[in-house]
Amino acid sequence: MNLHSFLARVYHTAGLTTKAADEVSKLAVTRETLTPEDEATVSVVTKSRVDQLRRARRIICVVEEREENKGKVNRVIALRGFKSKIEEELAGLLTQFISSIDNAFLSHPTSEPSRILFLKMKADYCRYLAEIQRMQVQQVQAAYVAAYEAARTSLGPAHPLRTGIALNYSVFHYEIVGNKDAAIQIAKMAYEEGSNAAKSLPIDEKDDALEVIHLIQTNLKNWT
Known about the structure:
Layout: H1 3-13, H2 17-30, H3 36-69, H4 73-105, H5 112-131, H6 137-154, H7 160-177, H8 180-198, H9 203-223
């Protein structure tokens, strides 16, 4: 395991998500060939830090709306300033991670599933930038198409990575693009293909597959 990967995992375990993310960025700079363990660390650490900032932003948005409804102008101004700082940090982090994926991690993945995982991460991070108006929809679409087509070509219909990409791609269409029909079409295809394929999977693989398939099913129920 690379030293930066090792430190990233230690910092992550200790709850030091910012320092863990910094080590991932340093790992990208080395341009070394990663081990599967390194790749797993990159995925876990970056997701953890990004999720932390997105969760903080969502909480601030909820409180901001509540205080605005109460007419608490000073509180709203303060909250908007804090939200802006969170968005700046999130945008910088996402842009840095996307650059690391493009310029380092995608250049020599250990396997085709690993390459597809990095494509998925890139697409998801592009979507998060679009959520805060820092990336054009067309760029996000291109990233998801690359991940979606690679997954459909190389992975089975019930593979959690393939269904996970379909899940997030459909969410992109529903929430960002506002294209409900496209979202339902992608989700429905993934659900039907994944459900049928999952029936023949070994027990130890079926649970992971069905977890994502059930999330897709829930979205379909909410959207139709």
